[in-house]
Amino acid sequence: MSPPRTRLDPEGYYARLGLEPDATREAVAAAFRARVRVLHPDVPGTGDTEAFVAVKQAYDVLSNPERRQDYDQAARRAAVEPDEFAVRPAHQAHPARPVQSAPLGATPWLHTSTLLAAVGLGFVAILGISVVQVVLHVQQKPQIVSAGIRPNAATVQPLSPEAHHATLYGPVPVQLPGTPNFYVIPAASPAVLWRHDAERNSFVPERQLPPFSAMQAVRFVRQNGFLEVLVKDQPNGYVDAAHVTPGNAQAARRGYCSYNAGPPPRNAELLARAGQGNGRLDIDNHAVQPAVVNLRDPSGGVAAAVYLSPGGHAEVEALPNGAYRVDFAIGELWSRACQSFAAGMRARRLDEALTIADKIHLEIAADSASLPSTDIAEEAFGAEEAFGQN
Fold first, then answer.
1. 183 and 252 Cβ atoms separated by less than 8 Å
2. Residue-range domain boundaries for the chain
3. How far apart are the C-alpha atoms of 330 and 98, rounded to whole Å?
4. 199 pLDDT band (50/70/90 cuts)?
5. How confident is the model at residue 342 (pLDDT cuts 50, 70, 90)?
6. How far apart are CA 48 and CA 269, in angstroms?
7. Cis omega before residue 161 (within 30°)?
8. Among 19-28, 251-260, 368-377, which is the least confidently predicted range?
9. Residue 156 has pLDDT above 80, yes or no
10. CA-CA-CA-CA torsion for 152, 153, 158, 160, nearest 10 degrees?
11. What's the whole-model pTM score?
């Protein structure tokens, strides 16, 4: 059941998080985290993909100050506008009329004949419309999918260096040519890319597309419910429209990261580690959201990555001495598949390198902009790229 919508919450975003429109930013983050722990698709028993997507959509709007302000202002403007209604004159009372009895000798069967004639005409009209629709459908010459074809095409295999994702999270999504406007959603049956065999006038399976593969659809084939999609250096292919949803490449990647988030990390959990030494880094997270700190060596490799809960503290020991580039990110729903947050992520990089010689202390402030740092792209923060190319 969809959450109730009010005039101050027209899309039900606050209701999805169980909040009032005057809720603080901290309350929004806390409510989202509480629902993610229950609704995430990987949670046994309570996981609900549709409800999780609805909650994340609400969080994406309400956690962004500019988008939330626009949403609230639009709701307030709509609340003060008068409702449109039609003014109808009051019904005038009519004097009671005496009930006239039917004269003797009247023939009530005349009224029954009139009713039967009207029903007969309606039936004839419906039959005529049905005949016209059948003729038009036959003239369209729809494509015919041959009986007995099964989606037994080979799955598109991921390419190195992301091949290990196939074991942990299933085949890596691919991106077909063109500007993506649809992507594959997870389902009980695989999404198959079909080819049209002109000689047999039928469709044959070519390969399976992993969930969250992005594609550009050029048209919808109404006769068989297929989307025609672009395929590199070959005739266009066809995908069952029930297996895809509208969305660009960024939406597909976020869907993949959310779906493969895995179990949430615990506070101070080391997500990556390389090398040994006598250096130590103490980190405090003063933000209202979880944070992840990456230490990158001069080659760009991740020497250490640590997860911190809101208000969390971590001590990273035995670090090799040296200068490190420090990247940190704040967001919700850490994805182990993508090594990034799947919702509301903001990533930054310290302007100055951090030299670890003995013991260093680092604080992640509630306002990340207060640190001498620069915004970086989500893909630049992740330890590795999760998507392959076709």
1. yes
2. 13-79, 154-259, 270-381
3. 81
4. confident
5. confident
6. 27
7. yes
8. 368-377
9. no
10. 120
11. 0.57
Contact between residue 303 and residue 268 where contact means Cβ atoms under 8 Å apart: no
pLDDT of residue 31: 86
Query: Which of 290, 335, 283 minimizes the C-alpha distance to 304?
Result: 283
pLDDT in tens, 86-141: 334 444 444 444 444 444 444 454 456 666 777 777 777 787 777 666 555 545 54
> Above 60 in pLDDT, residue 383?
no
Q: CA-to-CA distance for 192 and 188, rounded, in angstroms?
A: 12
- In single-letter form, the type of residue at position 328 comes to F
Q: Tell me the CATH class for 13-79.
A: mainly alpha
Range 270-381: architecture per CATH: Sandwich (2.60)
Token digits of residue 308: 């911190």
Mean per-residue pLDDT, 317-338:
89
Using CB atoms within 10 Å of the CB of residue 205, give its burial: 0 to 12 exposed, 13 to 18 middle, 19+ buried. Answer: middle
Alpha-carbon gap, residue 190 to 243, rounded angstroms: 8
